[in-house]
Write a structure and sequence with these properties.
Number of helices: 1
Oligomer: single chain
Radius of gyration: 16 Å
Distance between the termini: 36 Å
Structural class: mainly beta
Strand content: 35-45%
Length: 183
């Protein structure tokens, strides 16, 4: 997978990063990595989203956290690590900071609010702060931009699927529905 930093005008700059870490203002964290665990062949290539942080319920779970996943469209989801009280608390706004890390797990803060991940297949995912500041918003393809002609929006976006791997890990993948058209 390749990680690109997007500037406010949408220009992409490649990075040498191997993972993305998102830290929320209340201490909760997510880590996004290339999916290395074999998945069934029916499940497309994607990324692993890990819930990490201080919200564990026991000593055994100290470095993990289950996640709340909120679908917002066929091509978008919001992810936030589980809140210790079991609710998302929608009235509470969360700020977030994005870091990228390299092979040696050296983290560096990025000065962008959008990250684009390109998979080996060429499909993309776009990561950004949820508009209502409830968590990390992941789009299949790229973020739908208001005012784009429908043809451009269709080219830019893809469906978004997910498959649980564990209580604290989900596999997220973009896809396009293939239509068989009669000749």
């Amino acid at each position: 997978m390749k990680i690109f930093l997007a500037d406010p005008k949408g220009k992409l700059t490649p990075s040498e990063a191997k993972s993305v870490i998102v830290e929320f203002s209340d201490g909760r964290k997510l880590k996004l990595t290339e999916s290395e665990t074999p998945t069934p062949k029916e499940i497309p290539e994607g990324i692993s989203v890990w819930g990490i942080g201080k919200t564990a319920q026991s000593e055994y779970e100290k470095s993990t956290s289950i996640m709340n996943v909120i679908p917002v469209a066929a091509n978008g989801i919001i992810i936030i690590p589980y809140h210790p009280y079991g609710t998302i608390q929608p009235a509470k706004k969360l700020s977030m900071e994005i870091f990228i890390s390299d092979q040696d797990d050296t983290r560096r803060s990025v000065d962008t609010s959008n990250i684009v991940i390109e998979l080996k297949s060429g499909k993309t995912l776009e990561l950004l702060q949820d508009y209502a500041k409830r968590g990390l918003l992941i789009w299949g393809g790229r973020e739908p931009v208001p005012g784009l002609p429908i043809e451009d929006a269709v080219k830019r976006t893809e469906g978004l699927g997910m498959s649980p791997k564990a209580a604290n890990v989900i596999h997220v993948f973009p896809y396009k529905i293939q239509r068989d058209t009669p000749a």
